[in-house]
Design goal:
heterodimer, A: mainly alpha, ABC transporter involved in vitamin B12 uptake, BtuC, 14 helices, 80% helix, B: mainly alpha, Arc Repressor Mutant, subunit A, two-stranded antiparallel sheet, 16 helices, 4 strands, 72% helix
Chain lengths: 298, 380
C-alpha cells in the first residue's frame, strides 16, 4: 500500500469528507484533552465516553434519528455520570478511582442493555445501527454529522480561547486561582463540560470505547515537545487532527470490516511513541545514545 | 435447570469470583487496573491465536492472562520514565493495545467467535457450551469460572493475613519482611486470571464493574475486611441473578443488565447504608441542627442569667427576637429544651436548669464560671 493508494483514496470525495471530519474532531479532542491531561484527569474522558452510550440509546428510543439529538443524549448521560462520580466521591468514602470505574461499567452496561433492547424492539433500528457507536465507523459520517462536529468543535475551541487565562491558572495552580477570587468550581465545571463536548463529537467516528485515547494521546505526545501551554495545546490539536485524518485513511485502506476508531487511536499512539523517543528535551532515544557514548568514552 | 437459571448461575459465579480480588482493588485504590486488564485481554487472545492457530486452544487463556499482567508492568514502566503521569499512562496503554486487538481481530478473525461485537458485549450463553476438549471430555467455560472462584477462595484463605497487612499498612508490612511489591503482582495476576475467566461472559468493558461495584457497595456497609469480602460476593451474586432475570424480561443484553442492576444495588447502599449513607448523613445533620438550637438557647439564657435585662432577654414572648428566630421555631426549640430538662418556665421567664447551665458551660469552655462571664453575647 503505497503513496499512490493514499492519494487515490483521498481523491474520492467521500473519503475526503470523512477524513476532514475526523481531523476536525481530532483537533477538538486534542486541544481540550491537553487540559485534562495536565490536570491529571485523563481517565475522566474514559468515563464520559462509555457513559454516553445509555444517553445515545435513550435518545434513539425517544425517536431521535438526527445525529445532533443522539450526540446531545450521549453528552447528557456522560455529563451525568461525572456529576454522580463527584457526588459519590464527596459524600462517601468510596475512592475516586473506584467511583470512576464503577460509573463507567454501570452506565456502559445500562447502555448495552438499552441498545440491544432498541435493536430488537424498534422497527427501523436496523437502518440506524447503534452499534456503530461502539467502535466508530467514520465511513458513515454524513454531512449532518460533519455539521455537529464542526459546530461543537468550533464552540469548544472558542471557549478555550475565551477562557485561556482562567483555564491556564486552573490547570497549574487551582489554589491560587481560588485565592484571587476566580469561581474555581464553575470553571472546573466548564472545563469538564468541554471534555464532554469533545467526547461527544467523536462518538460516531471513534466510538464510545476508544474515544478517551483521542483526548489523552495527542496531549501526551505534545507535552514532549514543549513546556509552554500555548504550544502544547496547539500541537495537541495538530496531532489529534493528523491522527484523525491519517487513521481514517488507514482504516479505509485496510478494508471494509475494520472500524476506524481503533485505527485513529493507533495513529495517535504512534505519535506518542515517536514523541517519547525523540522529544527534544527528554526523549528516551537521546538518553540511550548518551549512555552508550558514556560507555564508549568512559 | 432452566436456560435462564443456568445463565444466572454462570454470571453469579463470575460475580463472586470477581468480587474477592475486587475488594482489594477498591481498598488499594487501584480499581482502574481492572479496566485496563479487561481491555487488553482481547489483544492477548488475538496475538496468542497467531501463535497457535486454534480458537479452541486453552493457550489463548494463558496468553490473555499474561497480556493482562504485562499491561500492568507496561503502565508502571511508562510512569517511571516520568514523561507522562500515571493516569495518562493508563489512558495511553490500554486503548492502544485494545485498538490493536480490535484491528487484528477484524482483519484476520472475522469468521471465528472472536468477532468484535460479540467480544465487546459478552456472551454468557456461550459459557454453558463445551468449548475445549481434553481427553475426549468437553470442558465448559462455566467450569473454568468455578475453578477460578475456588482458586481465589483458597488464595484468600491462605494469604488473608498478608493481603490484609499489605493493603492497610504497606510500610509496616515491608518492615516486617513481607514483600508488598510481590503481593501487588500476585494480586494483579489473580485479577488477570479472573478477568480471563469472566471475559467470555461479560466482555472486556463490563468486567471492571464486576470487580469494582460490589466491592464499593460493600465498603459502605462495613468496617471489617472479612465482612466486606462476604458482602461484596453476595452483592455480586444478587446483581447477577437480578440482572439476568431483568434481561430476559426486557429481552436485552444480559451482562449489561447485570452491570446496571449492580449500579442500582450500589445506589441503594450509597443512599441507605447504616451510619454512612445519604439518609443517615441527612438524619445526623438534622439531629445536630436540633441539638445546636437547644444549646444556643441555653447559652443565650446563661449569658443573661441574673442580669437586669433577663426579663426581656429570657422572656417567653420576647426571647425569639434576641435569637433571631421566628416565634414558631422558638416555641418548638423551647418545648424540646424543656422535655430534655435544659430549661423550665418560671412564670413568663425561661430559667436554666442545672443540666442546661452545664450544657452552656460545656459549650463556652470549661474555664468559664459565673464570675468570668464574657461581656456580651456574640452578634447573632
Amino acid at each position: 500500500m503505497g503513496v499512490d493508494a493514499v492519494l487515490e483514496a483521498l481523491n474520492t470525495s467521500a473519503v475526503r469528507t470523512v477524513a476532514l471530519g475526523a481531523a476536525a474532531l481530532g483537533a477538538t479532542a486534542g486541544a481540550v484533552g491537553a487540559f485534562a491531561v495536565l490536570r491529571r484527569q485523563s481517565l475522566q474522558g474514559d468515563v464520559v465516553s462509555h457513559a454516553a452510550l445509555p444517553g445515545l440509546a435513550v435518545a434513539f428510543l425517544l425517536g431521535g434519528r438526527d445525529p445532533a439529538w443522539l450526540v446531545l443524549g450521549g453528552a447528557v448521560s456522560g455529563w451525568l455520570a461525572l456529576v454522580l462520580v463527584g457526588a459519590v466521591n464527596r459524600r462517601s468514602r468510596v475512592p475516586l478511582d473506584a467511583a470512576l470505574g464503577g460509573a463507567l461499567a454501570v452506565f456502559f452496561g445500562l447502555g448495552l442493555a438499552l441498545m440491544t433492547y432498541a435493536q430488537r424492539h424498534v422497527p427501523d433500528a436496523s437502518r440506524h445501527p447503534l452499534d456503530r457507536y461502539l467502535f466508530g465507523q467514520a465511513a458513515f459520517l454524513r454531512d449532518a454529522d460533519l455539521r455537529v462536529i464542526g459546530g461543537l468543535g468550533l464552540a469548544a475551541l472558542a471557549l478555550v480561547g475565551l477562557f485561556w487565562k482562567e483555564f491556564k491558572l486552573l490547570s497549574f495552580d487551582p489554589d491560587y486561582a481560588a485565592t484571587v477570587g476566580y469561581p474555581v468550581r464553575l470553571l472546573d465545571l466548564l472545563l469538564t463540560t468541554l471534555t464532554v463536548a469533545a467526547v461527544a463529537v467523536g462518538l460516531k467516528a471513534v466510538g464510545v470505547v476508544l474515544m478517551t485515547a483521542l483526548l489523552v494521546a495527542p496531549a501526551a505526545a505534545a507535552r514532549q515537545w514543549s513546556d509552554r501551554l500555548g504550544r502544547v495545546v496547539l500541537l495537541s490539536g495538530l496531532f489529534g487532527a493528523v491522527a484523525g485524518a491519517g487513521g481514517t485513511v488507514a482504516g479505509h485502506l485496510a478494508g471494509a470490516g475494520v472500524p476506524t476508531g481503533p485505527t485513529i487511536v493507533l495513529a495517535a499512539t504512534a505519535a506518542v511513541a515517536v514523541s517519547l523517543l525523540f522529544g527534544p528535551a527528554r526523549g528516551l532515544a537521546w538518553g540511550w545514545l548518551r549512555s552508550r557514548r558514556d560507555v564508549v568514552h568512559g | 435447570m432452566s436456560y435462564t437459571a443456568e445463565i444466572a448461575l454462570v454470571l453469579a459465579v463470575v460475580a463472586a469470583a470477581c468480587a474477592l480480588p475486587g475488594t482489594f482493588l477498591v481498598l488499594r485504590r487501584v480499581a482502574l487496573v481492572s479496566d485496563a486488564i479487561g481491555h487488553v485481554l482481547l489483544f492477548g487472545v488475538v496475538v496468542t491465536y497467531f501463535a497457535v492457530r486454534d480458537v479452541e486452544s486453552p493457550w489463548l487463556l494463558a496468553g490473555a492472562a499474561a497480556s493482562g499482567v504485562l499491561t500492568v508492568a507496561l503502565v508502571e514502566l511508562l510512569g517511571r520514565t516520568r514523561l507522562v503521569k500515571q493516569d495518562a499512562a493508563v489512558g495511553l496503554v490500554f486503548p492502544a493495545l485494545f485498538a490493536g486487538g480490535v484491528v487484528l481481530a477484524s482483519l484476520y478473525l472475522r469468521n471465528t467467535h472472536l468477532d468484535v461485537d460479540a467480544v465487546l458485549l459478552g456472551q454468557p450463553e456461550l459459557a454453558t457450551e463445551a468449548r475445549w476438549h481434553l481427553g475426549g471430555v468437553g470442558l465448559k467455560p462455566v467450569w473454568l469460572m468455578a475453578g477460578v472462584l475456588a482458586v481465589n477462595l483458597v488464595l484468600l484463605v491462605v494469604f488473608y493475613k498478608e493481603m490484609k497487612l499489605t493493603t492497610f499498612d504497606p510500610g509496616l508490612a515491608s518492615a516486617l519482611g513481607f514483600r508488598p511489591g510481590l503481593v501487588h503482582y500476585a494480586l494483579m495476576t489473580a485479577v488477570a486470571v479472573t478477568a480471563v475467566a469472566a471475559f467470555d461472559a461479560v466482555g472486556p468493558v463490563l468486567v471492571v464493574g464486576f470487580f469494582v461495584v460490589p466491592a464499593a457497595a460493600a465498603f459502605l456497609l462495613t468496617d471489617r475486611l472479612a465482612v466486606m469480602l462476604g458482602l461484596a460476593a453476595l452483592i455480586g451474586v444478587v446483581g447477577a441473578v437480578g440482572g439476568t432475570f431483568a434481561a430476559v424480561r426486557l429481552d436485552a443484553n444480559t451482562a449489561g443488565s447485570v452491570a446496571a442492576v449492580l449500579g442500582v444495588l450500589f445506589a441503594l447502599a450509597f443512599a441507605a447504608a447504616p451510619g454512612r449513607g445519604l439518609v443517615a448523613q441527612a438524619v445526623r445533620r438534622w439531629r445536630q441542627k436540633r441539638a445546636f438550637h437547644e444549646t444556643m438557647l441555653a447559652v443565650h439564657l446563661y449569658q443573661h442569667e441574673g442580669t437586669d435585662a433577663e426579663a426581656d432577654e429570657a422572656g417567653c414572648r420576647t426571647v425569639h427576637r434576641h435569637l433571631g428566630w421566628t416565634e414558631g421555631q422558638t416555641a418548638a426549640v423551647v418545648g424540646r429544651a424543656e422535655r430534655h430538662g435544659l430549661v423550665r418556665r418560671d412564670r413568663d421567664t425561661l430559667k436554666l436548669t442545672h443540666a442546661g447551665r452545664d450544657r452552656a458551660r460545656d459549650v463556652l469552655g470549661g474555664s468559664v464560671d459565673s464570675a468570668a462571664r464574657p461581656p456580651s453575647p456574640p452578634p447573632s
